[in-house]
Amino acid sequence: MKHQLNVFKTELRERGLFYALKKAVLYLLRPITDLMKTSTFLVNLRYGVLPNLLSKITFHQDNLLLKLPQTDLVRAVRNFWYGSILDRFVLEGEEIKKEEIFTYGGPNPEFSCPICQKAEWVSRIRQENLFLDHSCPSSEKCRKLCEKQGNDLWTHFHQNFDFSLGCSADLPAPKGVYVLFGKLDMFHALRLEPMERIFHRQFAFACQLDIAEGPFGIDWKKYDFMFMYLPGAVPKFKRPPIPVILFAHDFWREPKASQWVLDWLEPEVFLTTYPTQFKENYRFPKNTKVVFHPMFTSNFFTRPNLSQKSIDLLSVGNTKGPLYQGRRNLNMQLQKFKEQYPSYKLEFSHIVGTLKPNEQEGLEYTDSQGNQIRYLNKWSEYLGTAKYVIFGKMKYPILVGKYYETLGSGAIPIFPEVPDLKLLGVKPFEHYIPLAEIEGNSERLKYFLDNYEKFKYIGKNAVKWYKDNSDKMLFAGFEGSIREVTNYKFPKRLVR
């Protein structure tokens, strides 16, 4: 309950009273809604039969698309990015490489003022403040964004890929429609969630994209594929006559509802961070291809540190709730170890992931309870200050984001072995130390801490593996799935 009160306070501060109250009511009603979702019959009644009846008495269902203004500069960059074979875009004598657009994004459509739009974009590309003093309604916002460029405390403002939103029939790139079951700002209002940020960049790399609020009233003929996130139960709609790519994350949430959606939607591609668990717990249509979708935060937000160490052992990962008993057990072992061997510097950081981040605070700050909060590159920097980073088991053996974060940090990872590790190609004692080596065995843990010099090659191997594979698996793999469902009718993206 204490955790939920902290979440409520955060939502109240960041999203307002109405949103916080709505989330609180939904939380209180969750036992009832969860009970409904344990029955396929009740799921179909609530999300299939009733929406169908309502659609028959509704004369017309308009669809809302996220519409961002496209200035001459935005259109020119879109034409260059999706259609040009050249490797440089020239903006009033300023040369911008495709690789720089791949890294930092394009002009921000929110700025209609050409001076603001150019200044903010070039400041991002060059990573320095190139604001041009002028007066317009957006100049103050532009100035603040320009000032944040080049400062690692504000790296989340160093990328913007909204130029890719909106589909044009004349561009040689796949046209996708992302169907949201919620308000459009769920996609557009980015915060500090790594997966959301990576998805934005992946879409910009692989395709053009329209964002739709619901699946009704869409002219499917305009698109090459539909993309949808599977949160569990969603209102049933007629299966589109185009390929469907479905993404799913937490396999244990609403399994009956998720299976019900899979059965009638029959996606061509099922993207998931946990392929082994989904294959073990779900029935997939015979024509559905299950594709591994890794959770790298990308090289852009990773700050490996192989030399400057101030912590012997750092324990990380959420420990609140029924999923994390294994991590709590590990923490008890480490606390006893710390008392038995006080000369070692051990730290515990379990805040990230338990509360929603606030981008206006920057990537590192102290919250109202005195906790040091770090996200993205600042979190990566912190992990790299440790010789070893460890986290314990979850209820389910899944490849959570902590695996990627620790592998790229420069620390020696100690973590549980899970089935999907084989999809990454990492090996024990080459890229990580299995948790089983020290679990319940403090003398073995002491041995590793005493012999850091002997084992630090593992951290070095892990960083090399991360640098070699992160962006390749994130972008080439994602583009490959889209090219496959669109029958390879569009050219492969080249950024160098």
Overall number of structural domains: 4
The major pleated sheet works out as:
7 strands, mixed
How much β-strand is present in the residues?
5-15%
Q: List unreliable stretches of 5+ residues.
A: none
Number of strands: 16
Number of helices: 18
Please report the first level of CATH classification, the CATH class of the largest domain: Alpha Beta
Report the CATH topology name of the largest domain.
Rossmann fold
Distance between the termini: 51 Å
Summed over residues and divided by their number, the pLDDT gives a mean of: 89
Assembly state (oligomeric)? single chain
Q: Which radius of gyration do the C-alpha atoms yield?
A: 24 Å
Side-by-side strand order of the widest sheet: 1-5-4-6-7-8-9
The helical percent reads 40-55%
What is the 3D shape?
globular
CATH A-level architecture of the largest domain = 3-Layer(aba) Sandwich
What is the CATH superfamily classification of the largest domain? Glycogen Phosphorylase B
Tell me the structural class. Answer: alpha/beta
Short description:
By secondary structure, the protein is an alpha/beta fold. It is 42% helix and 14% strand.
For this entry, give a set of tags.
496 residues, alpha/beta, Rossmann fold, 7-stranded mixed β-sheet, 5-stranded parallel β-sheet, 18 helices, 16 strands, 42% helix, globular
Give the SSE map.
Elements: H1 2-15, H2 17-36, H3 40-56, E1 64-65, H4 72-83, E2 88-91, E3 94-97, H5 98-104, H6 114-126, H7 139-148, E4 175-180, H8 185-188, H9 194-206, E5 208-213, E6 225-229, E7 244-248, H10 255-265, E8 269-272, H11 275-281, E9 289-292, E10 311-316, H12 325-340, E11 346-349, E12 364-366, E13 372-374, H13 376-384, E14 386-390, H14 401-407, E15 412-415, H15 421-424, E16 433-434, H16 442-450, H17 452-455, H18 457-485
Parallel strand pairs: 4-5, 4-6, 6-7, 7-8, 8-9, 10-11, 10-14, 14-15, 15-16
Antiparallel strand pairs: 1-5, 2-3, 12-13
